[in-house]
């Protein structure tokens, strides 16, 4: 029974992949959703479930739905905490939403969990160098807004 469910989940995931490659992101999301419904909640299906969540995330990213991208990546990472693609996609979505500190945290996690993947490490290091000044600027702006708010509240 469980093997049949896994096969159905895998077939739906493959159909989703075909739709994704054709640029049909909404349709691909539907197929990944079906795959997630078929995949049994058991250790044998952790890999396919984490992949489907990561695949949903890239579809949402292509659709500009970055909050959903983050949610799906987080679900994928709950199933597989060192999933490189999910960390990359979540970091990119955080950057798009200007959640710079969260994006930096994901990039640092990539370096920590994948030290031997030189390309991933290099990309993560470049992202951190790009993001840190943006994060500092955003923190400074928030601090100034807080001070301005306190000054207007006190007067």
TrEMBL record:
Pfam families: TPR_1 (PF00515), TPR_2 (PF07719). TPR repeats lie at residues 9-42, 50-83, 84-117. The lineage of its organism: Eukaryota, Viridiplantae, Streptophyta, Embryophyta, Tracheophyta. InterPro entries: TPR-like_helical_dom_sf, TPR_2, TPR_domain_protein, TPR_rpt. Keywords: Repeat, TPR repeat. This is Uncharacterized protein. SUPFAM superfamilies: TPR-like. PROSITE patterns: TPR. SMART domains: TPR.
């Amino acid at each position: 029974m469980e093997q049949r469910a896994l096969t159905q989940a895998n077939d739906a995931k493959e159909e989703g992949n075909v739709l994704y490659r054709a640029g049909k992101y909404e349709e691909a999301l539907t197929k990944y959703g079906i795959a997630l419904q078929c995949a049994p909640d058991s250790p044998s299906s952790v890999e396919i479930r984490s992949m489907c969540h990561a695949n949903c995330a890239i579809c949402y990213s292509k659709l500009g739905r970055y909050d959903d991208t983050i949610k799906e990546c987080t679900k994928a990472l709950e199933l597989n905490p060192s999933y490189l693609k999910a960390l990359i996609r979540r970091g990119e979505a955080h950057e798009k939403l200007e959640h710079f500190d969260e994006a930096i945290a994901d990039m640092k996690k990539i370096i920590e969990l994948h030290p031997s993947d030189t390309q991933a490490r290099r990309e993560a290091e470049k992202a951190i160098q790009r993001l840190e000044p943006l994060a500092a600027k955003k923190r400074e702006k928030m601090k100034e807004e807080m001070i301005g708010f306190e000054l207007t509240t006190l007067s």
